[in-house]
């Protein structure tokens, strides 16, 4: 039986230090863009308030998105291939404790820019949701064959955006984003470790 060849990455595999450095640099760049946009624009940052009810709502939303991702992963083979490719490039070099940063850095910086700044800048309406979500999806583009992952990220971006609009609280998508990243990356990492053990 001939084993199917894995898709070769269009971007080179990075080391653990390079991935962590890239995550940190990306977070800083997104925060700078958000700050500059607030400084130069005539709008305010989307409000956020730390309260237990919406914190729990964010956790529940994150768990729901993770469960939905699992279903999509099983039924849509193009997305499964795209997600495995993306996650292998990002997660393979990382150690388990690094996943904390994988949740926190993108969860905070991306939500601040795409929901905290872009939504009010574009008018807090359906068009603002669509445009900010498309930009969020494109941020996750890592190669010409990665369109299913971009579509999924755009869809999740819309969920995050509507959760902010419906609750009036940026805390909800921030928490949901962090939870989604933590759980999905943890389960992917565990499945890879199990496959490695089964080979020996």
TrEMBL record:
The keyword Transmembrane helix applies. The chain crosses the membrane at residues 20-43, 55-73, 85-105, 117-139, 146-164, 170-188. Coiled coil: none annotated. InterPro entries: Rce1/LyrA-like_dom (IPR003675). Pfam families: Rce1-like. Residues 95-183 form the CAAX prenyl protease 2/Lysostaphin resistance protein A-like domain. GO terms for biological process: CAAX-box protein maturation. One of its GO terms (molecular function) is endopeptidase activity. Signal peptide: none annotated. Keywords: Membrane, Transmembrane, Transmembrane helix. This is CAAX prenyl protease 2/Lysostaphin resistance protein A-like domain-containing protein. The lineage of its organism: Bacteria, Bacillati, Cyanobacteriota, Cyanophyceae, Nostocales.
